[in-house]
Each structure stands twice: as C-alpha cells, then as structure tokens.
Amino acid sequence: xxxxxxxxxxxxxxxxxxxxxxxxxxxxxxxxxxxxxxxxxxxxxxxxxxxxxxxxxxxxxxxxxxxxxxxxxxxxxxxxxxxxxxxxxxxxxxxxxxxxxxxxxxxxxxxxxxxxxxxxxxxxxxxxxxxxxxxxx
Length: 137
What we know:
By secondary structure, the chain is of the alpha+beta class. The protein has 1 helix and 10 strands; from the N terminus they run αββββββββββ.
C-alpha cells in the first residue's frame, strides 16, 4: 500500500531530525501543526543560536529530476478550502530535502518550486548538497 502524503512527510522530517542529532545538534519541534517550520535546529547547546527549518519531501519529476515544492497549503479561519501560499523569509531560515541519501540544506527562497537533477552537468543546487555547514553542523 502506498504511503499517504502526510505519512511520507513525517518520515522525512524524522530522518532529518535524526541526521541533525547524529551531528550533535539539539532539535526542537513545535507542538501542533500550525508553525510554518517543522523543526528548530540549535547547533550548539551552549549558544543561543537557532535555525527554523521546513523539511520538504522531494517528488520525482522525471528520470533524474526532483521537484521541491516550497509552498504550503493554508486554511484560514472560517474558510472551507485551503489556499497555496509561499513561505515568508521571516518564517523560516532553510528548506531541507533528501535526495538519493543526500540532504540538501537550502537557504530560504521565495520561488514556489525548486528542481534538483543530481546527475546533470549544470549541477543545479549542488552547492547545497550536504551543506550542513549552513546549519553550523
């Protein structure tokens, strides 16, 4: 049976949190499902420095290409249907996604989608592949 979107997203979030913990970070998760970020990464327990991370599950777009939706579905109070909205720079610091067992740590962008092709000559977003240094890990 295929996993549901929510279940797949939760698994991706847990995998990211585990990777951060293995690198020595403190990982905080907001209660409920209403914060614009999935977790907060504190690279050093002794320093008051925190990064808000929105974890995204990459979607296979073609043979070698993956799509990352950098938007969310938001249901406003009293509304029946949800609308697609972009994250704002004051809400998150990074997007994180896993492709082929590598984590892409991508600084905030206001683009609605990003594409990664790990085998492309162009190496799009390659600078963010395993870029744990951006989270100071």
